[in-house]
């Protein structure tokens, strides 16, 4: 019996939650009970290296006392006040702290409680922006085919992630999708290495805008470095620069979804800063709270925010938990921790080392591509490296195998992807806390090696 099978047996009794709990891979739940830095422990005191930072959010590591202290103090002082009726100090302090991280020109943040809400808010903000300027007809949001922007109805409508949406279709709005612009699988790149997934894929967005009618298009939304939908992939240089020009030309807002990549994960504060491009709206969530509280944020550029200043009721939006004081105090403590420990720099330096180590994974014949930036690394799997066909075991069969092999080797992994219309392989995201050093990065790489070796034998390779 493997260690994982033993854990499954031991935890089975207390975890019969049926379909009403978001179980992903394991047949039975492993219950995580405590964490410290990059490590987590299950109910039987088995220790795992958390190579995915909770869910790409626990960027400062688990169990930080500084954050617990800030939470306690704020909860004792004022846990909640309605943001529709009052301002509150922790939220103001937090948005100022966020502005130290955002690029020049981004001073404000609309605080919500998740990445999906941050993107919903961005979509609505873009729409009202056009409305206030007399362009009521601009409502469509274009996105890339292989993308994930959230699970709420609006965010799902702009996502191109079949595994998470097919059972929900038709969605409320079926917005147009542009090419994924993924170098490893670009339909337009030529065999001699001509990189069409730069400018040419961006031009495909322009054609979509023209076909749809520019007077109907409100925004283009994209992840600069893709997460769950395409593990660590990003377009070739020239893409984002050209997208900026196109958006300017057609009065379409350029929204970057930095829910996973933002707040340091890729070795820059925001992933879009790897390119010399200024978007109109940035969305964030995961690393913004380090996982210590459910927080998301929508950050408009000054030129967008200004339009709302002249409007009587401002942005026509809000949720009960918006600008939550307790969450805001936690968020400030998390961002201060990031500053105090230079975690963005660390992500860049240690990320480069981990990336080098991950290149070793090409020794497994089912590894097709290793990519990413900073500590956001993706590995894509294939059945055949020449044809790039997905593994025959593609989808949940392969992903469960990988996840469980990881647990057996004491490492938490995040498999995803899967064969869709013959175009994509499965993948795994490697996104450890930004606090790790080279030694721990080696530990991540070594445990991934052991995991891939086990997966290879299970697949008979
Ligand atoms: N956008 C991106 C890029 C994400 O990675 C995610 C979460 N995986 C979301 C949006 C949705 O965020 P949440 O799960 O907090 O709603």
From TrEMBL:
Entry-linked InterPro entries: Aminotrans_3, Aminotrans_3_PPA_site, PyrdxlP-dep_Trfase, PyrdxlP-dep_Trfase_major, PyrdxlP-dep_Trfase_small
Protein name, per record: Aminotransferase class III-fold pyridoxal phosphate-dependent enzyme
Domain of life: Archaea
Keywords recorded for this protein, A-Z: Aminotransferase, Plasmid, Pyridoxal phosphate, Transferase
CDD domains: OAT_like
UniProt cross-references to SUPFAM superfamilies, sorted A to Z: PLP-dependent transferases
Similarity remark: Belongs to the class-III pyridoxal-phosphate-dependent aminotransferase family.
GO MF term (any one): transaminase activity
Pfam families associated with the record: Aminotran_3 (PF00202)
